[in-house]
Amino acid sequence: QQRDKLKQYQKRINVTLERERALARQLLKEGKKEKAMLLLKKKRYQEQLLDKTENQISNLERMVQDIEFTQIEMKVIEGLKIGNECLNKMHQVMSIEEVERIIGETQDAVEYQRQIDELLAGSLTEEDEDAILEELNAITQEQMELPEVPSEPLPEKIPEASPVKNRPKAEPVAAS
């Protein structure tokens, strides 16, 4: 408000200065040099007042900016204060010991679940694994028994094969 009032005051002074300058010219034309000189002194004094008013306006604007910035700072500090209070309340609810206890319980629960998963998945002991490997080797040996090979020598010349039409049909192999 003060700034606005000072600006209005400046406008009035500027109007007065223009009027007095015109009046001083008229007085000089009429030959009234002393009155013109007095009027110019008054004009000079008002110009100095105008400069002082400009400085006051600058000071007021600077003060307004400082106040606005301080208000912002106060809001930030209030926000920090509220945040700090919230953190302190949370720390009172959750102590380090409580967090360590919860972490320990969680690790125990994970280990317990792992053991259950192993039991359900049918995890075998090392002895069971060894028995399974022995059984696998025995099955593999059975499959490796080959049919007997004829002991007579192969003929030197292979007889010519008969046409496809006269070939005997292959008998189906039984699955074992």
Automatic annotation (TrEMBL):
Keywords: Coiled coil, Endosome, Membrane, Protein transport, Transport. Transmembrane segments: none annotated. Residues 143-176 are annotated as: Disordered. Residues 14-70 form a coiled coil. The keyword Cytoplasm does not apply. InterPro entries: Snf7_fam. It is found in: Endosome membrane. It comes from the Eukaryota. GO terms for cellular component: ESCRT III complex; multivesicular body. GO terms for biological process: late endosome to vacuole transport via multivesicular body sorting pathway; protein transport; vesicle budding from membrane. The keyword Protein transport applies. Belongs to the SNF7 family. This is CHMP6 protein.
